[in-house]
Structure formats: structure tokens, C-alpha cells
Amino acid sequence: MPNRTFSTLRLLCVIATLLVFFCSGGLAAAQGETTRLGIRQIGGTGSYIDLILEPGASQEVTVELGNFGDAPAVAYTYLADVYSLINGGMGVSLEETTGSGMSGWVDYAAQTTTLDAHSALHRSFMVSIPPNTQPGEYLTSIVIQGEASDVSGEGGVALNQVSRQAIAIAVLVPGPQQPALSIGAASHTLVGSNSRIRVELHNSGNVRLQPEGEVVLYDAAGAEVSRYPVKMGSIYAGTTTSFEVPFAGALLPGDYTIALELSDAKAGPLAQNPALPLRIEAPIAPTVAPASEGPQAAPINQTPVVQAPAPNVGLSIPSDVLFVVGLALLIMIAFVPMLRRRRR
To answer: What's residue 179's pLDDT?
Structure first.
């Protein structure tokens, strides 16, 4: 009888261990699960929807909205305007478009839907070019976005993570291409202890550009201070952005000029300015607050002592693990009366 009792106890311990292992593993998997959404064109081969349409023409386009995660996901899809990033490249607005520009040509209403795990749905819409549209490139995008999910960061910091994917819709209206670029003002800022110069650019033409060239910085006496190559990503037609020049240190206060010449591999020379003015102000020194009419603050004539935090000697156990362990113990306790009856 004692051997049988010992075998039964050992079996219960094994069952409890397996219960803790599988339950805690399932909880960890559920907590680590993130939404994975995607969007692509049906019948397309590129990373964006590329169309060539005459004024007054229309074309139907179909996209696939997919959930590649292991759990159902709520997906919100909508049209979003496109802009040019600093140093070039495509940026997508975080908000739904108001219907201005090319976004008004796309019949794609915002929609919220639930996608099962590893599933997708197709959605068709029309792209219609208004009559009398001028030749050139036009751009907008479609976004698929999930709900915000809590992600634990370091130090107990909770972050909201949003799964978001976008696909661009690029329409070329045939006709003369007119590349044009204008150079705006230059400005200076400090990032940490290093200088950074930013020069504004505006694509006033009707096609995207990828400007490249060189920046030469001169001081007030005409001496060369620095030279830096410029190679940007795409600046889209009708958008304004800028490029930045990072420096290894801080530039001295004073007046400077920037010699800048930009070109495009396809369009050729674009814009130049041999003497773009730049003024760097001296860093603002800390100001002393005037004495108030009330009592003066007492000075502290000592070196502050930084006390090290007390070590955490307590054992931190997640609440989910405690729940599973407690459940296993309750199961074992429930079997104790049965064991006692057998021994009798």
C-alpha cells in the first residue's frame, strides 16, 4: 500500500508540473502575440501600385488586406496623403486624408473589419483621373492599421505598438515632364554638442527627383570650413522637404555662406546657389532669475550625495504563474482525502 500511495503522489506531481508548464507557456505565448497586417496589389509585381492614365480615364484596382498573425485582428484601412521625408523618401500621413489632391481621385472609403488569423480579403476600387489634369506624377497611399497593443519595455515601461502598413498609388499622366527644384533658406541647430545645418528644398516640377551634389561651407572671411556630399532619396512633385548636414562638432557663432549645386541623374542640373546665407547665433547662456521680494532661498554649501538604491531582495513572480501554481496545488489537495481513504 505505501508503494501504491507513493506512486500516486508521484503521478500527481508530474501532472501538476505539466499543468504549470503548458499553462504558463500558453500565457507567455498569448502575451507575446502581436498583430501582423499587410497589404499588396492583386495582379501587380512591384512594391507599389503603378498606373499610367490619360485625363478622364479610370481603372479598377484590387488590393489584398491580410492578417499574417496567429490571432484574429481588427484592421482599419483608409487613404492617406504622401509627403517627402527629410533627406528624401516617402512619408505617409498618420491620419486619414481629407480628400485633397490625388486622394480625391481614388474611390476607397475608410473601413474597419475583423480578419481571422492567416486570412485575407480582396477589395476593389476605382482610380479616376479628372478631365484637364495636367501631365505629371501624382501620388497617394492606402493604409492598413491594427489596434494598439501593449508591449512591455525595459524598466517596466509600457508601450503602445501599432501594426501599420501602406502601399503607394503612383499615377503618371502622360505628357511633357518638367523637372524643377528651388532652394530655400538654410538654418542651424545643435543636436547634443554637434551642429546640424538644414537646407529647405521645394519640388516645383511635375516629376519626382533624387537630388545629389555637394555642400561647401565658408566662413565670413571666405575660408572653407567644411565640405559634404548630398545624395537624397525621392522628393515628390509639389512637395517641400529639406536635407541635413551633420557635423562632427559645434560650429563657431558667426556669418557663413553655403555654396550648393544639385542635379538629378535623369533630369540633369536642377538648382544652384553659390552664396546661400547662414547665421549661427551664440548659444544662449543660462540667465539668472531676479531676486523675488519674498524671503531669499537658503544656499546649500555641500556636495550632494547620491544614495544608491536599496537592492531588491524580494522575489518577483508574475501573477499568471502564481495563479497556475495555486491551481496545481488545489488539484493536489483535492486528491489528499482520496489517498487517505485508500490507506485505510
So the answer is: 96
